[in-house]
Give the backbone structure.
Amino acid sequence: GDSVTQMEGPVTLSEEAFLTINCTYTATGYPSLFWYVQYPGEGLQLLLKATKADDKGSNKGFEATYRKETTSFHLEKGSVQVSDSAVYFCALNSGGYQKVTFGTGTKLQVIP
Amino acid sequence: ETGVTQTPRHLVMGMTNKKSLKCEQHLGHNAMYWYKQSAKKPLELMFVYSLEERVENNSVPSRFSPECPNSSHLFLHLHTLQPEDSALYLCASSQDWGNSAGELFFGEGSRLTVL
């Protein structure tokens, strides 16, 4: 079955540091890949997505590139802010069933 | 109101109680979902409704009973729960059922504690 593996958290960074959160996946076919973010006390919201190999999703300074050869979709940001503190979920959808498979989430804490 | 709204935000119940979680979406979407979020575990898909018909039920215990009276409303009826059912229950919606590139829109969740 489908699966998503994310790096264990929490990740603690100083403001303006470079961020990478690793995500790898196993899926049948050609899935769409997503990053969702959950701020404290809120539900998940879509951060970015990519629907085919080599696509780059980007939003709010975050980027992730769909790498089919390494089955990865790593999240990066060049300079994090305190307001980026949240839990980040990698996810995929491989079929026609809108059945999204999520990773366990990676908590990011940015300190001033 | 816009987006996906869940009530109540917090619920504490005993194992013999009966309660319900409510979800309402104002996005005109055709599919709605219940997810369970527990610490250090991936989100667990519980139920999916498309155009008010249940299309997915991931072997959820019968003490959880969903209801979708129309495409804008989704309920999760709870009875005789166990302490391990304590979690954050998230409702989500999407434009259509069957679009692999589609985005899920989540509510803020209902934090359930079972004593």
